[in-house]
Structures
1.
Amino acid sequence: MVSTIEWTPAGVVMIDQRKLPAETTFKVCRDPEDVADAIRTMVIRGAPAIGCAAAMGVALGVQQADGEDIDGQVDQVCDLLASTRPTAVNLFWAIERMRTLYRSLRSSGVEIGEIRKRMADEACRVLDEDIAANRALGVHGANLMPEGATVMTHCNAGALATGGYGTALGVIRAAVEGGNAVTVLANETRPFMQGSRLTAWELQQDDIPVTLVTDSMAGHMMQRGYVQAVVVGADRIAGNGDVANKIGTYSVAVLAKENGIPFYVAAPTSTVDLSLASGQEIPIEERATDEVTQIRGHQIAPEETRVRNPAFDVTPNRYVAAIVTEQGIARDPYRPALERLVAQANAPKGDAD
Ligand code: MRU
């Protein structure tokens, strides 16, 4: 399984996801500005992965802050990282976790050298906990996969999109590890092609059978009985169970319901935003128009064409059969179920029921 991101003495090292599958190259981020740039330009992408990157970006900022106003500099780093992408809540969750620890260490009078070390340790813990969460949710989700099913997925919610192992692809991996010979139908995921470039590549690395289709083929494949379940990841899940995920997910969910196919969402509890009453409140990122008008620098639309490029959409909870987290599975009614799972995740170790 590929390593998405690592904390090293040279800096934060990330596989450059813009170059896959043609080239496997790595970017070394030596300061928080490099990390912010890598998130914005999608060197690293996927909600949990950008959370891990942001945590490491804050840790780098604390290593490098110096002089009279260290606290002000750390705040600026947090604000910079928070300005990179608006939709995935894991980004803000990770920044707040790091900022809270920093403030508590400062107010306890811990010496700055020790704070620098503990912040680096905490960033590595964010990464390790994400991988552990994905393995746990994978096991819960694997139980939902019919024997030998063909499972459709959209975008890339795999090892590349997380600290490792993946959410939607974590469910697939756990099913395969448990002896269930599922196969994957990957939607290519216009316009950034996370399905064709990343999901197909990642599953091939693990010898998990994968067939690629264009997004417009999803309905036909379902109608003809080629799909037994859908599993996707999430960028933010509102308190009522509405799910923001990669653009096109909503269409897949509606098609799944029309065709009587269960539509599952796999995400760690760090993706749940209980402060939002519904998905209508989730900010949707609009990205540059050339992602739509060009493919690899090649113009595919007339110059000056008016373009919209929303990067995410919201699937209303009525289309979601279950939300699989590391703490267990939530079903309708979602608010009490999600509240319970998030409380379990936040309980001091040993208190969880
Ligand atoms: O724009 P991206 O590639 O960051 O969008 C990623 C997705 O929408 C994923 O499905 C989501 O972040 C879940 S990743 C485990």
2.
Amino acid sequence: MENNSVSIDDSRDDPQIRFSDIFNVAVPFIDRHLKAGRSGKVAIRTTSGEEITYKELAASVNRCGNYFKSAGLSKGDRILMVVKDCPEFFYIFWGAIKVGIIPIPINTLLRAKDYHFIIDDSECTAILYSPEYKDEVEPAIKMAKNNPAHCICIQEENSDLAELIADHAPDLNAVETKADDDCFFLYSSGSTGNPKGAVHCHKDMVYTSRHYGVETLGIQEDDVVFSAAKLFFAYGHGNAMHFPLWVGASTILFDGRPTPDTIFDAIEKYKPTIYYGVPTLYGAQLLSMEQRTPDLSSVRICVSAGEALPPELFKRWKEKTGLIILDGIGSTEILHIFISNRSDDYCLGSSGRMVPGYDAKILGDDNNPVKQGDSGKLWIKGGSTARCYWKNPEKTAQTMQDGWLNTGDTYYQDENGYYHYCGRNDDMLKVGGIWCSPFEIEAKLMEHPNVLEAAVVGAPDDQNLIKPKAYLILKKAEDKSEELEKELLQLCKKGLAPYKYPRWFVFSDDFPRTATGKIQRFRLR
Ligand code: 3UK
């Protein structure tokens, strides 16, 4: 096989991906497009009006790789990226990979103490950041024990990336790496404890792009993608960067805060064919559609991940837009989505069926597989799973065993093969000795027309027994009343197993959320 190439045997039902012995993933994702005749095609369009062709992308990636080399960085060094969604994100990420440096994109919504931890934990040699984040990043650099040789605010006078790389050559041969050499890390924030760096290899992006992007989603060269989930998030990373670059499509980058209006504006103006959102945003978008009728006619696929999509949101979105939302579950450790609904094969309220290339097992408390239909702990095996957590053998051993990854989720599989989410293992409730999924109760509450969002947690009653407690955000706060509480109670008592109705209702304006918008139920408890 030619160096840096991938071969896929399409004649089989489960196409096998093979990698050349020498394999640097920047070649198929960046360089390949020039030979394939896409030099003049737009790879990246920004909502501030920039257009970057595949040829310009490759040249900037190469200049950036050459710049890193000239700055004394070398193979195996790690660089942190606290970078907003902009073309420079691509130049740094791929330029680093091409010269064997390990880029580590991190959440741009973190605080100084988190950056401090990651600067020390990763033992990075450089940190590159957008000026928007300097107030949190710069104090973190000062606090850290590790002293990165290069701290660069990339869109500021004197350290603007475009200027730093301008004098470097636009050609660069990829450094020799292997498909299972370390390529990039993504830090995953657990609900407790410090973030852990999931170590991903060169082959991983190929695996997700092929099995999820192409075989499951059906992304094609003429697609234009737009992800409301940002590039630093593994979900956004695949959506807006890996998949379009794998097939030679175009991606739209928006560096601002995703709100219903900013997202609708971008969709109307840049006309994506694939739109990726998260449930919370779909919910807010639906609400805003009471005032605004956005033109979504360019969109053929809507995707949701990050947390389970409540069936009510799916139904309302379909009613309003005529489009279905494809829910799928992914994780930072697996890199992207491994169970998913499809346009021609979906089951409302489920995460869908297995993505090709992944296997699942659902284990009971005794660590044996449960009967089909019973819920248990979901473990996943597949070729894009992180090799380990960086410098954390204990967590690695707990989470990754014999190629299987413990997702931390409880699932059951129905008789048609669809997987149904029942909650995080740590969020599940036992009520009267029986497992009870907060998610099921939330979905029921959200059927009520006044309810925007619901979060259910376990709370002790006067006998110190755990019972469900519902926190609710109403569409209009003034709708709160005793009458409404009674209606909600009736709705739950009628539609759920008898032990499952919430014993308390608390109305709030917002919920505690992670930086990526997930509800932090443990903080409500
Ligand atoms: C939960 C879901 C129900 C689940 C992610 C798509 O979310 C992503 O990665 P994270 O590491 O979190 C993983 C955990 O989030 N989850 C995600 N999607 C769903 N639960 N239904 C869903 N559709 O607990 C999972 O273990 O932040 C999502 C692609 C790449 C990703 N990294």
